[in-house]
Model the fold of this input.
Amino acid sequence: MTIISLLAGIILGAVAVIFILQNVAVVTVTFLGFQFAASLALVLLTTLLVGLITALLILVPSLMRDLMYLGQIKREKKALEDEVASLRKTVNAIPEAVASVTQQPL
Done:
């Protein structure tokens, strides 16, 4: 599923870049009382990059939480594997203990 998402993102990014490169007219942008003139391609590319950075910043906390959870799960898995190994040793020692008890005279 992640490969499909990656390919969709690459295709969408390529289409956006092609769209930007085909729109090179000079436009005037007004934002919060500031006004500047730039090529439409530059304005669109800047908007695309700001959106990308915003999306990444939104995803970082979730990614960090998931990585921390994965680390916790791995530690728990290791502890459980160690416990299973210890119990297997105990179970494997039971027949020997039973044999030594039954061979002793009363």
